[in-house]
């Protein structure tokens, strides 16, 4: 799902001619569209370290930009060839599956939750992989993204699944 030009990150909306995405969110009863969303930046440093992520590299939002209706956090892996981003938003798993810009959907179970692994249609080199996990309100989307300056040194889908499994106990309702 595209959050900003060239980022290839999850949101609802459709790409515009400039390559950015028009973000649409479900109506909120609150003036704050982010109200009630789980904040992935709240994950404990100890859990991140145990999962192979470097807590000191935490970056909130996308390139420092807050996108309404989403909470986003990103960390570099200790392996350094990829980053893990986690997005929390209101789209459902069904919304994710309906997106024409994604493919290779594979159903998963994460703990007791429904989930789906998928790829971006435009990522022909398969440098990124997503796992969306059902929450009480929306989804948490885990994205393993290859660090382009280092190059792919493993399977981004295996990393996305591993981190999802290891961090699932911190999702709301767990």
Summarize the structure.
By secondary structure, the protein is an alpha+beta fold.
Q: Calculate the mean pLDDT score and round it.
A: 83
> What is the rounded distance between the termini?
25 Å
Strand content: 25-35%
Compressed to H and E, one letter per element, the order equals: EEHEEEHEEEEH
Helix content: 10-25%
Radius of gyration (CA) equals 15 Å
Q: Note the total helix count.
A: 3
The parts where pLDDT drops under 50 for at least 5 residues are: 1-31
Q: Count the strands?
A: 9
Q: Main sheet, how many strands, which sense, barrel?
A: 7 strands, antiparallel
Spatial ordering of strands, largest sheet: 3-4-5-9-8-7-6
Give the helix/strand class: alpha+beta
Shape field: globular
Descriptive key words:
single chain; alpha+beta; seven-stranded antiparallel β-sheet; two-stranded antiparallel sheet; 34% strand; globular
Give an overview in words.
This protein is an alpha+beta fold. Helices cover 14% and strands 34% of the residues. The chain is built from three helices and nine strands; from the N terminus they run ββαβββαββββα. It has a seven-stranded antiparallel sheet with strand order 3-4-5-9-8-7-6. The chain has a two-stranded antiparallel ribbon with strand order 1-2. A hairpin with a 5-residue loop joins strand 1 and strand 2. It starts with 13 loop residues before the first strand and ends in a 7-residue tail after the last helix. Mean pLDDT is 83; it is low at 1-31.
